[in-house]
Amino acid sequence: MTEYLSDFQTSIFDTLKKAINNPTSYYNNLTKTMMLLLILFCFYWLIRRGLSKSHIEPLKKIRIKKKVKNSFFIMLVIGVSIIWINALNSLAILLFLLGLFGIVLIRGILDNILAWFIIRKRHYFRINQRIEVNDKIGRVVTMGLFHFELAEIKNWLSSESYTGRTIKIPNKDIFDAELFIYNYREPFVRQEVSYLIRHDNDWQGAKEIISKAIDSYYQEELLPSMDSQLSDKWKEDMLPTFNMSLDENGITLFCQFLVDYSKVASVKTRLHEEVLEGFNQHGNIEFAVLEVKQVD
C-alpha cells in the first residue's frame, strides 16, 4: 500500500514537471492564463482606485475608466491568444478569437438590455420625470430597450427652459454615471437668489424687502400647492434661510427657499421683480457695480 501511494505521488510530480517543461501543455497554458488574469486584474484595480481618489472632474473620470477597461480587455485577448497559439490548432484559435470578438460586439447591447430591465423593475425613473445624467438635464420622454430619451433643459440657456433638442442616452450609462432625479418622492428642490448692494446701503432694509417677497411667494403659491402629507425631510427644509457675505465688492444677501422644480424660472422671475421694485422705492439701496476709472 505504501509503495502504491509512493508511486502515485511520483507520477503526479512527473506529470506536473512535464506540463511545466512542455510549452504546448494544456496545464502549463492554463497556469499562464490564470497568472495573466491575476496580473491584469491587479493593475486594473490599482488604476481604478487611483482614479477614484484623484480630483479629476467626474465626466472625464468616467471616460478614462471606460478606456482603461477596454484597453485591459484587448490586452487580455492578445495575451490569451499568444499563450494558446501553440496548444490549439488554427481552427480552434479562429473560433476562439471570433467568439471573443462577438462578446465585444454584443457586450454593449447586453449591458443596455440589463440596464433597461433594472430601470423598469427597480423604478430608477419614469416617463416625465426630470433627471440629470452626465451633466445633461432633461425630462424623460421615452424609455427603450437600448436607450432613453430626454427633452433637454437649460444647457446654453440661462434659465431652466427646454432647448427644443432631444438627447439619446444609452441605458448602460446608469451603471457608471451619477444619476440625479428631481422628483423621486417630492417635486421640490432648494434654490437661491442673491443681491449685491453697496457697503453704505441700508442692508437691513434690503433684507426686509427680500423677506417680504419670499413670504408673499410662500403664502400665495408654495404652501397652497403642498401636500398635507409632506415628508419630514421637506418639513425641516421648508422654511427659507438668509445669509450674508461681506467683501471689497459690497454686501451680498443670499436667500435659499423651497420651490417646485418645474417652476424655478418663473418663481425666480417673480422674486426678482418684487425685490427690484422694493429697492427702487427705497431711498438708500443700490446695487454694487464695478467702477472702472480711466486715467489720462
Commentary on this structure:
This protein is an alpha+beta fold. The chain has three domains: 2-87, no CATH class; 130-181; 188-281, Alpha-Beta Plaits (2-Layer Sandwich), CATH 3.30.70. 54% of the residues lie in helices and 20% in strands. It contains eight helices and eight strands; from the N terminus they run ααααββββαββααββα. The strands form two sheets. The protein has a five-stranded antiparallel beta sheet with strand order 4-3-2-1-5, with no helix packed on it. Strands 6-8-7 form a three-stranded antiparallel beta sheet, covered by helices on one side. β2 (136-143) and β3 (147-153) form a beta hairpin. The chain is elongated, with a radius of gyration of 32 Å. The mean pLDDT is 79.
Q: From the helix content, strand content and strand pairing, which structural class follows? A: alpha+beta
CA radius of gyration: 32 Å
The first-to-last residue Cα distance is 112 Å
- CATH C-level name of the largest domain: Alpha Beta
Proportion of helical residues = 40-55%
Estimate the global geometry from the Cα principal axes: elongated
CATH architecture of the largest domain: 2-Layer Sandwich
Please provide the ordered H/E string of secondary-structure elements.
HHHHEEEEHEEHHEEH
Q: What is the tally of beta strands?
A: 8
- The overall number of domains is 3
**Number of discrete helical segments:** 8
For the largest sheet, list the strands in their spatial order.
Answer: 4-3-2-1-5
The CATH topology name of the largest domain reads: Alpha-Beta Plaits
Global mean pLDDT: 79
Strand percentage: 15-25%
User: How would you characterize the largest beta sheet?
Assistant: 5 strands, antiparallel
Uncertain ranges: none
